[in-house]
What we know:
Layout: H1 3-12, H2 15-24, H3 27-39, H4 46-57, H5 68-74, H6 84-106, H7 112-119, H8 123-143, H9 147-150, H10 152-172, H11 176-204, H12 210-239, H13 243-262, H14 270-273, H15 279-288, H16 290-310, H17 313-321, H18 325-353, H19 355-376, H20 380-405, H21 413-465
Amino acid sequence: MNPVAEKRLKACAPQAVINHAYKTRKPAHRATFSLLEQSMSERTKISSLGTCCNKTFNNDPFSYPSSKTEQQRIGVPSSPVYSGLRLASTVCVAMLCRLLINTARRFAYPFAPVLSRGLGVSLSAVTLIISAYQMTGILGLIFAPLGDRWGYRMMLLTGLGVLSAGMLIGGLFPFYVTVFFGLFLAGLGKSIFDPALQAHIGKQISFSKRGMFIGIIEMSWAGSSLLGIPCIGLIIAHFGWRAPFYVLGAIGFLAMVTLGVLMVSDQPKPRSVGKHLHIYRNLLHLVRMQTARGAIGFVFCISAANDNLFVIYGAWLEQSFGLSIVALSMATTVIGVAELSGEALTATIADRFGPLKMITIGVILTAFSYLALPAFGLTLPLALIALFFVFIALEFSIVCSISLVTELLPDARATMMSGYLAAGSLGRVIGALMGGPIWMTGGIVAVGCVSAAITGVGLIFLRKGLSGWKPAETEQPSKAVTDF
């Protein structure tokens, strides 16, 4: 090897390339590579490897392994896979997919009377379907961790496919059992899709910019109440109660095809599969990790606290101010605007000041907003202002926490997110069961105080669990993030 090539190899070749060449090339050259291996002090990143090493090895017998299979075999990391335009397109389509899924997930709440009349069953039978929604979040613990083994793209497409199939089943067969099964599949599709999407963002986007992307994606939650549900109402008014099932199912399959074309395959590399824990050990790992326990306890508490209020806020406004159904729908719009504002706020400032600090501030504001509900409940405008502050602070805290949680278990992000979302679903079930009795016992004063106390406990869980934790990214994020 000539001295120039040896010097350039020493500057840029990673250990994996030297080992590969040492083991497979002529014995006469091995002494050179042994010397390089001892003297090399640091390795360059893959961004410089592609330009430097290719030039170095073009005219040298020790050629750089150019095939993707060979690079994976010796442990060379892959290059960034997204261009700026493709990343932007993928994020936009993913947000629209989330809008579709959240609309399918939420439209049964306001239109439960319409569904009960169309199916010829009681309203309580439809609320049973809604209750089954919450259980699908817990089932995400079984399905979502598969993304850590099979790739997040596959689970995203699976979630959309399951949701679309459920919607079409509900529309084609207008019977209670089939509609129950169809809406259950829709909830299951969301439980598969959401952790995979958040884990994919965590893998592709650097931690310093992740809050912005999570905030953009989560705007679809508010969009479902501001845009999706009103559109469903128009469809029902013009075409009947079965029409939304057909529309959501057809759009779901179209979204699945579009997302499949835009997203690159992210199946784990052969060299890293062995690092992933077994699926059931992954779940056990969540219990053993202090950071994971803190995040799970946090989301359980704030979800229980919020549903403790959410299930009775309509009764509070109706009883205190005599609101009609139309007026109550306007109150729901206020909540949707608050959620959208919280998500936009996350996308704007969370990365600048750090997600943990922003979560702490958001949770404290949420607790004080709960306590302020009785004092602000003297007039309707003040009550709506109080609800607005509750939900903007809560949504800001939750979306910031999602950005943070994607980094707690980098080798099993989908497992971590499924545990996080399942804990949130369980917290909402407990909160919904608590809200009615607490309201009947002590009114809005008791509800506000209990929600504030549970929120405070959640903050303690988070701060104690993440004490001393620092983010440590283990994978190279997409270079296209710099285009934003």
